[in-house]
């Protein structure tokens, strides 16, 4: 329960900075807000700790990708969905790819029950509650929209493709390609730090 509050309120702080940068931009308009979540202590109750947050009334929508199997295409067609994807891109760029706010969902521009994935377990002393694979997946699937352009965010696709091309060129120049196969892809993939997800 404490972790849930910590995750959502950390994401909320990033959303406030995002809003401060995006709101003054001409034509950007309303910015998504992550609602605060509070921890309540009830000593007389069987469950001594609970969380309290504003009730969101209306159609509840998942705007961001949770995993490879669940891609919500609604997010590309709605203003809130596009701005959520831009927020993810903005946080990713702001933290140099070290942190990603995931599971963006809510009613309209009001979001709740978000997650956080971090590249390193103790990034800035922060424990994420989502797997690092969320970051890899975001980098591969994110499609920039007009709000990404307004904020001057760099396309993830081009930098990702450039890295692939340079890796491909290096493999061609090596005389023994069989040793290359053994050393590069497997070692790069095996030592992943998975953070147990509570979802």
TrEMBL record:
InterPro entries recorded for this chain? a-kinase_dom, Kinase-like_dom_sf
- Output the superkingdom of the source species: Eukaryota
Ranges of compositional bias, category Basic and acidic residues: 187-199
Q: Kindly indicate whether the keyword Transport belongs to this entry.
A: no
Q: Which residues form the Alpha-type protein kinase domain?
A: 1-156
Q: Where is this region: Disordered?
A: 162-199
Describe the reaction catalysed, as an equation.
L-threonyl-[protein] + ATP = O-phospho-L-threonyl-[protein] + ADP + H(+); L-seryl-[protein] + ATP = O-phospho-L-seryl-[protein] + ADP + H(+)
Query: Gene3D superfamilies per the record?
Result: MHCK/EF2 kinase
Subcellular localization is given as:
Basolateral cell membrane
| Enzyme Commission number(s) from the entry | 2.7.11.1
**Uppermost EC category:** transferase
Q: Name one Pfam family in it.
A: Alpha_kinase
Which coarse location class applies to the principal site listed for this UniProt protein?
membrane
Q: Which GO terms describe its cellular component?
A: basolateral plasma membrane
Give an example GO molecular function. Answer: ATP binding
Q: Alphabetically list the UniProt keywords.
A: Cell membrane, Disulfide bond, Immunoglobulin domain, Kinase, Membrane, Repeat, Serine/threonine-protein kinase, Transferase
Q: Which SMART domains match?
A: Alpha_kinase
Protein purpose: Protein kinase that recognizes phosphorylation sites in which the surrounding peptides have an alpha-helical conformation. Regulates cardiac development and cardiomyocyte differentiation by negatively regulating Wnt/beta-catenin signaling.
- Give the family this protein belongs to, as stated in its UniProt record: Belongs to the protein kinase superfamily. Alpha-type protein kinase family. ALPK subfamily.
This chain belongs to the protein called: Alpha-protein kinase 2
Instruction: Write down the species.
Output: Nestor notabilis (Kea)
């Amino acid at each position: 329960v404490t972790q849930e509050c910590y995750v959502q309120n950390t994401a909320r702080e990033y959303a406030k900075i995002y809003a401060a940068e995006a709101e003054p931009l001409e034509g950007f308009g309303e910015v998504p807000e992550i609602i605060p979540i509070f921890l309540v202590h009830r000593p007389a109750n069987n469950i001594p700790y609970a969380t309290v947050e504003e009730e969101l009334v209306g159609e509840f929508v998942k705007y961001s990708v949770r995993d490879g199997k669940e891609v919500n295409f609604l997010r590309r067609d709605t203003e809130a969905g596009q701005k959520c994807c831009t927020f993810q891109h903005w946080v990713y760029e702001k933290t140099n790819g070290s942190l990603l706010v995931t599971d963006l969902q809510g009613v309209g521009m009001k979001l709740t029950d978000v997650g956080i994935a971090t590249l390193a377990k103790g990034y800035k002393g922060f424990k994420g509650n989502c797997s690092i694979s969320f970051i890899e997946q975001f980098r591969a699937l994110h499609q920039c929209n007009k709000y990404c352009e307004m904020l001057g965010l760099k396309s993830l696709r081009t930098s990702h493709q450039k890295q692939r091309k340079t890796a491909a060129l290096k493999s061609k120049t090596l005389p023994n390609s069989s040793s290359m196969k053994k050393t590069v892809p497997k070692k790069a993939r095996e030592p992943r730090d998975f953070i147990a997800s509570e979802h």
